[in-house]
Amino acid sequence: MISRRSVLRTLTAATLIGGTLPAFGKSSHSSAIRMLDTDNDGTVDLAEAKKAASALFDKLDRDHDGTLDKRELAGRLSAKEFADADPDHDGTLTKDEYLAVVEQRFNAANSDSDSTLDAKELSTKAGRSLLRLLK
Hints:
Layout: H1 4-16, H2 22-36, E1 44-45, H3 46-60, E2 67-68, H4 70-73, H5 79-85, E3 93-94, H6 95-109, E4 116-117, H7 119-122, H8 125-134
Antiparallel strand pairs: 1-4, 2-3
């Protein structure tokens, strides 16, 4: 049986020595598009991203208070990212604040400024950062 630790060591080693895992990365981002692409055009637009983020927000809001705290976000944002996303500094994110972060990350990932994200854009650092907020 392969342990999670073994998989993480292998991925870390591959990253550190400059190796790539094309099948893993490509498959992961292609499946993300299939999951998010409700109009089946092969890309993800901002409305599709926000729809997925809104549904995830509702799922993560276990206490149903309309906000997410750091615990409910389960590592989707670093402490600094959380602080930046919390303009009123109340220690929680409302759905509007969460969706604003999603929109910022979407725009950062949209390198060709065509208002949609393809698998290549989702495989960038900015795209992966967005996907953490949608999965």
